[in-house]
Amino acid sequence: MEEKRQYLEKRHHGTSLFPADYYHCVYPAGLAGLPVHWHEEFEITRVQRGSCTYLINLEPCQVKEGDFLFLPSGMLHGIPEGKTRLLETDSFVFHPAMLGGRTDACGVKYIAPVEKGEICFPAVVRAEDTGREFSERLESLVGRLRRSFVEKEEGYELEVKAGLLEILLLLYRQVPFERKRQENREVIEKLRAVLQYIKENYQHPLSVAELAEVCHLSEYYFMRFFKQHMNMTCVEYINQYRMEIAAGRLSEGRSSITDIALDAGFNNLSYFNRVFRRSFGMTPKAYRQALSQRSASGQEGCSATRR
């Protein structure tokens, strides 16, 4: 447990008094990818339109309009490069502690087992598998949560907490769950460790040797291990993560492209431009201009940097 906690993500969503947040995201078709990551918060996502392939705890999973994703603490998830078909989502990210005390019946019987991975609900809940009544009820709860976060009327925190608890109750009563299998735990722990290390050190040169050392593997075995479970090389993943950072900085529109490249860990501007064009199909300058035009036309969007 202590080994796991030292790699927990340091960024939190919301505030210390209200650790929950809402994100409306629009990902363009052919997105460069949402790097695989994990966080200690729970995440509930509703796919409003489009489709993509998610990688959830090392397994590829197709999601489409109308699907719900329930991602508890510690679950690895992301979108492999080029696997989106114009994806629009509503996501709620919240710390399980806000749902109840760890010593009351609700916390002990229902929340803590999900947080610790002892009880596992399906990561993707589909309308065709659960029935119309369940889907409509879940959609209604998500809509209420969205309005609560957007309008922030007096007492909205109570409404959000109540809505999240209702969703958890709905899952327990109507969605089959199972006890977590143990065979992938060691693999997932090693991947969490190396992904956290990349996240904390992406601005500096990263070698295969130091990443292998994080996992306590030889360089040769580490490269095979990473490729097998992430479906890409560690160099490809590092570039994908740096591209995510760069895209987020470009969307802010304040820094120069050279500064953004350096901040994302690229010391060679030509190489940065080449990797960016390969990932997004356009230069960084053209990407920034496209974002500006979208903003001017009133279209909503979200870069994949909310972790």
CATH architecture of the largest domain: Sandwich
Q: Tell me, what is the CATH class of the largest domain?
A: Mainly Beta
Order of helices and strands: HEEEEEEEHEEHHHEHHHHHHH
Principal-axis shape equals globular
Helical amount: 40-55%
Cα-based radius of gyration, to the nearest Å: 20 Å
Number-wise, the strands total: 10
Question: What's this model, at a glance?
Answer:
With 307 residues, the chain is of the alpha+beta class. It folds into two domains: 8-179, Jelly Rolls, CATH 2.60.120; 185-296, Arc Repressor Mutant, subunit A, CATH 1.10.10.
Descriptive keywords:
307 residues; alpha+beta; 2 domains; 8-stranded antiparallel beta sheet; two-stranded antiparallel ribbon; 10 strands; globular; disordered N terminus
What does this structure look like?
- The chain has 307 residues and is α+β, with helices and mostly antiparallel strands.
- It is built from twelve helices and ten strands.
- Strands 1, 2, 3, 4, 5, 6, 7 and 9 form an eight-stranded antiparallel sheet that branches. A two-stranded antiparallel ribbon has the order 8-10.
- A hairpin with a 2-residue loop joins strand 3 and strand 4.
- The protein is globular and about 55 Å long.
SSE layout:
Layout: H1 2-5, E1 20-27, E2 34-37, E3 42-56, E4 59-64, E5 68-71, E6 77-79, E7 84-94, H2 105-115, E8 119-120, E9 124-125, H3 127-130, H4 132-151, H5 156-174, E10 178-179, H6 185-201, H7 208-215, H8 219-230, H9 234-252, H10 257-263, H11 269-280, H12 284-296
Antiparallel strand pairs: 1-7, 2-6, 3-4, 3-5, 3-6, 3-7, 5-9, 8-10
Helix pairs in contact: 4-5, 6-7, 7-8
